[in-house]
Amino acid sequence: MIANDTHELSGNEHECSLCENTFDKAGMRFCPTYNQSISTRCSPDVRREEQCREDTTLSARALSIFERYFSANTLHFLSTPIAQSLLLTLLLTGMSATILVLIYWQIPMATPELKTVFAATLFKIFFFLLIITGVVSWLFTLARFSNRLTLNELRAQTKALATEVAAHERTARAYQLAKEEAESANKAKSRYLAGLSHELRTPLNVLLGYAQLLSGDGRMPKHAKEPLHTMKRNGEYLSDLIEGVLEVSKIEAGRLSVHREDIQLRPLLEQLVAMFQQQAISKGLTFNYHFPSHLPHFVSGDKQRLRQILINLISNAVKFTQRGSVSFAVRYRNEVCHFVIKDTGPGIDEKDQEIVFHPFERVSHSNTAVSGTGLGLTISRALAELMGGDISLASTLGQGSCFSVSLMLPRLTNTNRIPVDEDNNVTGYEGPRKTVITIDDEASQRQLMHDILTPLGFNVITANDASEGIAMLEQHPIDLILLDLKMPEISGWQAAKMIRQSGSKVPIIIVSANVRELDMEDNAQQYHNEYLTKPFVINNLIDKLGHWLNIEWIKHDDESHAQSTIENAQNKPLVGKNQYQALKSLAEIGYLSGFTAKLEDISDHFYMPMETQKTLKQLASQIQFAKVVEKLDELIN
Question: Is the pLDDT of residue 368 over 60?
Answer without folding.
Answer: no
